[in-house]
Design goal:
The chain has eight helices and no strands. It is mostly helical and 152 residues long. It folds into two domains: 3-89, no CATH class; 94-130. The N and C termini lie far apart (61 Å).
Length: 152
């Protein structure tokens, strides 16, 4: 949960949990890193986002930081250009990610569809599309593969 959404009771619970279960402040450091990365995306100003991103990378690169945070700093550094572009343009792939998550939910609940047309229909219905208004499915295979038993 974001720090801005915690009330006094939430802060007390968080501090108590960290005091009880995080003696070396590893989780607290990761939570702080998460706050700093979130701050990058919460601003619409590219210059301020760049400053916040540099701050997040510096926090994660600190010598006393955990190895996970060093890896996060490396990832943020590698993706700096893409992060800046995303903030400057406002472009994101949220719809694609949401559609993929919905498709995975359908697949998980299907327990192994044998019929692709049924799987496609359930996916379309789950995503709120009208099955009759979509492109026809292109056949991938033109024939069924032969098994070793059939070829003998």
């Amino acid at each position: 949960m974001g720090a801005e959404r915690l009330d006094d009771t939430g802060w007390d619970r968080l501090r108590a949990a960290l005091d009880a279960g995080d003696p070396h402040d590893e989780v607290a450091d990761c939570w702080e890193a998460k706050k700093r990365v979130r701050a990058v995306f919460k601003t619409g100003d590219p210059d301020q986002a760049a400053t916040r991103l540099d701050d997040a990378i510096s926090w994660c690169e600190a010598p006393e930081a955990a190895p996970e945070l060093h890896r996060l700093a490396h990832t943020l550094t590698r993706w700096q250009t893409e992060i800046h572009t995303s903030i400057a343009t406002g472009a994101h792939n949220g719809r694609t990610e949401a559609a993929n998550a919905k498709i995975k939910d359908v697949k998980r609940s299907a327990r192994g569809f044998q019929n692709f047309a049924n799987y496609r229909l359930r996916t379309l219905l789950a995503t709120g599309q009208k099955p009759g208004h979509t492109q026809p499915v292109t056949k991938i295979r033109t024939r069924h593969p032969r098994s070793d038993a059939q070829s003998r």
